[in-house]
Every structure is written in C-alpha cells, then in structure tokens.
Known about the structure:
Layout: E1 7-8, E2 11-12, E3 16-21, E4 26-31, H1 42-50, E5 58-59, H2 61-72, E6 80-86, E7 91-96, E8 102-108, H3 118-127, H4 137-146, E9 149-156, E10 167-170, E11 181-182, E12 188-189, E13 204-209, E14 217-218, E15 224-225, E16 242-245, E17 248-254, E18 259-263, E19 266-270, E20 272-275, E21 285-287, E22 290-293, E23 302-305, E24 309-311, E25 315-316, E26 319-322, E27 326-328, E28 332-333, E29 337-340, E30 344-346, E31 350-351, E32 370-373, E33 377-379, E34 382-383, E35 386-389, E36 392-395, E37 399-406, E38 409-412, E39 423-430, E40 433-439, E41 447-451, H5 455-487, H6 494-524, E42 532-539, E43 543-547, E44 550-553, E45 558-566, E46 569-573
Amino acid sequence: MSEEIQVKNGIVENGISFKMDIENRKLFAVYTHSETKIDLTAALFKEQLATTPFANVFLNDYLVVEFLHRYKNATENECFEAEIGERRDAHCDIAISEDKMKARFSLTPNFGGKEITLADVKKALAEKKVVWGIVPDEQIEEVLAKGKIADFTIAIGLSPVAGVDAKFENLTPVADERKPLVDENGDVDYRELGDIMMVHKDDVLMQRIPAIPGLKGRNVLGEIIEPTGGADLPFSGDKKGVHLNPDDPNQLLSDITGQPIAIPNGMIVSPVLTVKQVDLASGNIRFDGSVVVLGNVDEGMKIYALEDITVDGNVTDSQLECMGNLIIKGGVTGNSELIANGNVTVIGGIQGSNEVNEEDNKEEKKQEAKILSRGSVLVGFAENFSVEAGVDIVVEKYAMNNRLMAGNKIVTGAKNSAKKPSIFGGVTWAMLLVKGTILGSPSGMKTYIQVGSNPYVQRRVATIKSLLVPNEKEQKDIHKVLAFIDSHPERGNTELLEKLHHTLSKLVIDAESYQAELDELSKNVTIIDDAKVIAERGVYTGVEIRINNTFWKAQENRSKSVFRSEHREMTINQR
C-alpha cells in the first residue's frame, strides 16, 4: 500500500472509513474531516478498500468516482457518506436452445455473497424442466470451481437416427446403344440398328429393398423425437404384365414377353411396342409382342412382331411380318411384303410397283408386292399385288392386275360403284366363290377367274410336275452316259462313274419323293360342286372363267350372271 494512506481499525487517518448496511447489503464510504487530506485516486482508494473486510464486495466504479469527486472538493468541517458498492451472491442461468436439444449453463461469480452449489444448479435445471442428457455431477463441480463461466453445455439431447425408405432396384438389362450394322465387308446398314430391349416370362424385373427403421431421439426436456424416413413402401398396385415372386415377395417377375416400363415403385411389362414411325431413326423393328406404329413405315424398313402389327399411317416398299393380325390404316405402295399368321387389313388399299402377270416366275421375281395371310385379307383396293389368303379376300372397291388366291372366297366391289369394274386383269382364284360387281374391263383386258378346287393344292401340284420334268430328263441323260461308258470302258474312270451313280441315286430319291407327294395331293384334291362365280352387274369380253374342269371365255359383254359347273358343263344364269 502507498505510504500516504494508513489504515487503523478500518479508519483512515485522512478521514476515510467504510461500513456495510447489513440489512440491505450495501457498502458505504464515510468521510470525516481530516487535516491530512490527500490527492486520492481511484487506484489508491481501491488499494485502501482491499485491506478491509469488504475487499470482495462489488464496487460501482461510477459511484466511486462520484465519492472521490466530493472528497476532493469537501469543505472544511464537511462530513458525508456515499454508497459505493454492494455485496452480491453468485448467479447461474440455464438457457435452452430453440430445438430443445441443448441446455447451456452460465455462472456469474459472487462479490462477497453466497456461492452457487451443485444443489443450486440442479434446482435451476429442474425449474427449466431439463431432465435428459445432463452431464455428470463431477463436470458441473469443475465448472463451479472456476467461479465464472459464460457458456457451458450442461445437457444435450439424443438426436434421432433417420431411417431409410424402402428402395426399388431396376434389374432389367441395360439396353445397348442401337447402332447401324457394319458387316464383315465394312458395308453399313443404317436400317439395322439391333434388337429392342425386352424381357421374357419369369425374368426378374425389380428388387425391393425393405426399409430400415429409424431410431427415436429425446430432447433435454425428455420429450421423444420421432425419426424421419424408414417408410416401408410397397410395390405399385399397377402390376400389368408382372407378378410377385412366390419365393421372394420383394421381387417382381414378368408375366409375359414384352417391353419393360418403369413406373413409380414398380414396373409393368407391355406386350405392345409403340413407336412414332419406322424410319432410319428408329431402325428396323423386331419385337416379341405387338407393334403399334403411330405414323408411317418408310421405304426399305422391316417390322417383325410375334403378335399383331398396327400401322396408323402408310407403308412404302417395306416388309412387315407378324404371327398375329396385321392392320394398316393408310395405304401400302411399292413392292411391299406383308406376311401374317392372322388376318391382314389395309384400309387405304394396296398398289404395287410392277404389274403382276399369270406367267410371272416367282423364283426369278424376288421383288414382288405381295400379301401372305393364313387368315383373311381385307383391302380398300388392289393394284399389281399378289395376295394369298387362307380364308377370304375382300376388296372393297376394285382389283386390277393382281394375283389373288383364297382358300374360301374372293369378294370385290362396293355397292356405290356399280358401274365400275371390280375385277379386271390378272388371276383371281378361290375355292368356293368369286364375286364381283363387274368382271373384266371395257378394253377387253384378259381377266382369268377360277373356282372349284384348292388353289394352293393345285399350285403345288403344278410345281411338283414342273420339278419332275427336268428330273426325268437328267436321269435319261445320265443313263445314256453310263450306257456309252459300258460300251467304251476306256472313256470312263472310277471317279467319274462314282459321281454319275451318286447323282443318279439322288435324282431317283428326289423323283420318288416328288411322286409320293404328288400322289398324296391327288388323293386330297377336293372338287367343290357348288363353287360359283358371280358377276352382280356384268361381264366384259376378255374374261376367262374355269370351274373345276369346265372353261368359259366371254366373247361378248354380258349382264349380271352366275357361273356354275354342272355335269362337266358351264351353266350361266341371271340372278
């Protein structure tokens, strides 16, 4: 302490002393007039106070400065006292975070007052309803020992653990990028882009990974916090073309062969492939289901479907084949080829590029506009087309220069076109009936019509006979060579003889096979006695009609007529 201040029994010789108001816990400085008054500073004043029993009392610096000012300016014989501080207890506070996951503790030290105990802290926690995640007592006591702390996490909640929702893993194969085909010679086919990705019956399409439940949490108030996630989502209720694996309910299997389509939380399999149009962009189409084309099929393209094909637009010089029904809502042009195991319908009509003649050699003429159907064929009109149907052929308007063959009936001509020819040119051959509005044309175009026998059997018989003729000729030629070698052994050798006998043996086997088939066909040739040809309005010259073994050729125009064969003679009646 400075030598200028001397304290004796709490009274400073220069007239300053201190006293405490016990009831209000206030600290006062008392000035009593002294001749030894000095230039007292705040620092000297606090040094003086530190030697008293009130050293730990809280001082109000503002009040101290005010007292020292009065002290300095005190007049002679003036005495006064002034409050300069107070005794303060230690104080603690508990603050809870907004999310209630943390409780923070702050401690204000005591100034000559009571200290905070562990019991006080626990009471404060209880008042704030903090009951969960409180740190151990040892840690609280360590903090209290410091006497002062601004921020201490005294309690922390348990955060919930989020669950994992059920997931759906697509197990369908990733489709390869479709690229133009390059052959071994380096030639590029821009129409052939490869197969379209599809699945088959019982293929695994999707695996459901069950949800993982979350864990509950708890805040410092002891309240339960539910976890997020963990939704146990089921497969979609839309299960078209799919079913649950009976051995694993978390797997989807395909019911059918078709195109897999992903949907939310599931998968469906469509037996129908829908494309906008078939062109170089789409490439050729091969699909083990049905194909729907919303637009056109461009020149040179190919479509194969294991079920139906439907084309909303037109088909130009293309090949379409299916095992079901084939429907074209537009028209077919060029040397297109349509093959169907079911019915074929072309609403807009068919028009080939080349005229079809009776003498055409199909083995040589590879590019031909044709329809092959095991069912029936319905077209709007037909020009320059070869059409074969296992059942019926129906041409709504007219048939010009075609080769039409049906296992049952061929019917042509619309009611509102009664004055126009409905069949003219080409060959029309049905087993039971050929009916047209007008047969032939005013120009006398040759028009051949036949009924009464199965055209397919007759055609096969003709084909076999045409194969037997060169076979017999080649056998005769070989026999001549063998006979010559027998007469002139020096002109032959073992290798030549073996080759001749081998060829002759093959020819004999082929001839026997042809003859056996011919005999079987001959047994099954059915002659339809009530087969007929009907011209509803008339017949023009140039029309030739054959019913079984009877033949008739129009030498002049006729009105409506019904042609039948009775007793191997042609009968012509008007309806």
